[in-house]
Amino acid sequence: MNKLKLSVLICLCLFVFAQTAFAKKPAYSTVSVVYLFSDDATITMRATGVGSSQQEALDNAEKNVLDVILFRGVPESKQKMALVSSNESMEMTKNNPYFTEFYNGNRYKSFIVSSRPNGGFTKLKGRQFQTAADVKVNFVNLRRDLEQSGVIRKFGF
Fold first, then answer.
1. Does the residue 57 lie in any domain?
2. CB under 8 Å, gap of 24 or more: what pairs does 113-121 form?
3. DSSP H helices in 24-128
4. Is 143 within a domain?
5. Most buried in the list 102, 109, 112, 140, measured by CB within 10 Å?
6. 75 located within any domain
7. What is the CA angle 140-141-146, rounded to 5?
8. What does the pLDDT look like over 92-122, one tens digit per residue?
9. pTM reported for the whole predicted model
10. Cα–Cα distance measured from residue 32 to residue 78, given in angstroms and rounded to the nearest whole number
């Protein structure tokens, strides 16, 4: 009788675990950002973005590119190291007013030189759109702004 109760309990736990694990997964593919090329002042990357409208999907692709430049760095480019730090959550908390204005106030758009969808938009489940966009960012001005705002010190973090 104890083995039966234990078996039922284990099955129940596995069922609950499976339901919560699968419920949290998004209905769309993961975000990807790929380095394309750069020059002295700009870097161009291709990123995917997902949103409830085509414009929101494009905006999210732009934000994904900036996240990589700010918090991860771009191997094979002049910006190999993260501009701010690899500890994204700590930096977002420490410099909350700056990043709130940067992302929510659309200030990030002042550093986007160009942004164009590459291949149009794909309609996903749940009224979502996905796009791949080529995004060109002026990282010299972005670095200067981060320095002037006190987010990073001159010549690094």
1. yes
2. 113/42, 113/137, 113/138, 115/58, 115/61, 115/62, 117/54, 117/58, 118/46, 121/54, 121/57
3. 54-71, 88-94, 96-99
4. yes
5. 102
6. yes
7. 100
8. 999 999 999 999 999 999 999 999 998 889 8
9. 0.76
10. 20
